[in-house]
Design a protein that fits this description.
3-stranded antiparallel beta sheet, binds zinc ion, about 350 residues, 2 domains, 6-stranded parallel beta sheet, 15 helices, alpha/beta
Length: about 350
């Protein structure tokens, strides 16, 4: 098996990653709509008769929210809207089938990072379920807040909203959702500011950076400016490898990601998670790249018979667990899993689901 090096992989996920992971919505078929048509498709608009006309005129939540937030007398309305959006998002559940976020979570290690722009709870739920199985989870950053996460202001601890603070045992306060207004303010809230400060350091140090389902739109001025600056200030920028997982046309993506391209050979474009370096060299994406580029070795992840190990569409949870074992041995599994192995994702959800208060009914 290939050596491990002190290198890390940063995966930045946008709305497209959730769409690819949950193409038919959550387990009850509840949709996770894009900003355009958000309030109508979620049914939230039906509970806000005062927004009926304005909602039809401005179907994009970003446009509508920007308009309302410019006027002080809409503060109460915005608060109620925030609660409705948060309740909808928090009610979503990943279900019993293994999804792409689960596969991602099992294919990276504790050296790696996942940062998400999404409000939906799926990445947090995946972390929650997969933490029963493996011990080397990545660090997760919620760049726009998240409907599943809470914060203890006293102890400065972040946790799941369905848990209590492990230190003071008080209920967590929900982390704020950062609304998609044109001028996003990443400094206003301590939790969000910390997430962005961490992201800057991680971009500076990461060897590989994957953007999955994030189109890097020009309207994301503030987010892109922070990420470009962190990249441009990095002393190792010329060694970093970028990978874009996106179904959009490559010419459009090349334009959108132009600022990250130090050398054309340092960026690649693929259409799906299964074509990515993470799925092709699970748990060793950076190590393989390091050996390829630094030692000129054609390294890949193989089993004891020298057969390639990759993550495939047909893989279920148990087949990935077997692959993890071939790559890492027993040490990667948590004691709770070793003592009580599960037989499927359904088994895992049934075992832990009761802790997600009110979600799995
Ligand atoms: Zn606390």
């Amino acid at each position: 098996m290939i050596d491990r090096y002190n290198t890390s992989h940063l995966v930045i996920v946008g709305a497209g990653a959730t769409c690819a992971s949950f193409p038919s919505g959550d387990y009850r078929g509840r949709l996770i709509p894009a900003m355009n048509g958000f309030l109508e498709k979620t049914g939230i608009l039906d509970n806000f008769p005062e927004l009926k006309d304005l909602g039809a005129e401005y179907p994009n939540l970003e446009d509508l929210y920007s308009l309302l937030s410019n006027e002080m007398h809409h503060q109460d309305l915005l608060k109620r809207l925030d609660l409705a959006i948060r309740e909808y998002m928090a009610s979503l559940h990943c279900g019993w089938q293994i999804n792409l976020y689960d596969k991602l979570m099992l294919s990276v290690t504790s050296r790696d990072y996942i940062a998400t722009f999404n409000w939906d709870p799926f990445l947090a739920q995946s972390y929650f379920y997969m933490s029963y199985i493996k011990s080397d989870l990545p660090t997760i950053l919620f760049l726009h807040g998240n409907s599943a996460m809470g914060y203890c202001g006293e102890c400065h601890i972040v946790g799941y909203l369905w848990d209590v603070c492990q230190n003071c045992k008080h209920q967590f306060t929900p982390v704020p959702l950062l609304y998609p207004i044109k001028e996003k303010n990443y400094e206003q809230n301590a939790y969000i500011k910390n997430s962005w400060d961490d992201l800057k350091k991680i971009i500076n140090n990461a060897f590989m950076i994957t953007f999955w389902g994030y189109s890097a739109p020009k309207s994301d001025t503030a987010a892109l400016a922070i990420m470009h600056e962190a990249f441009n200030n990095s002393e190792t920028k010329k060694y970093k490898q970028f990978e874009i997982i996106n179904i959009a046309e490559e010419s459009l993506l090349k334009e959108a990601y132009n600022e990250f391209i130090y050398k054309p050979s340092r960026i690649s474009f693929v259409k799906s998670f299964y074509q990515s370096e993470i799925a092709n060299n699970p748990r060793r994406s950076c190590d393989c790249l390091f050996e390829n580029t630094m030692y000129c070795l054609p390294s890949s992840v193989v089993d004891e018979n020298e057969n390639r190990i990759t993550i495939q569409e047909e893989d279920d949870l148990l087949s990935i667990i077997r692959k993890m074992e071939q790559i890492e041995g027993e040490d990667v599994f948590r004691d709770c899993y070793k003592q009580n192995p599960i037989t499927s994702k359904k088994d895992l959800v049934n075992r832990l689901g009761s802790r997600l208060k009110g979600i799995m009914k």
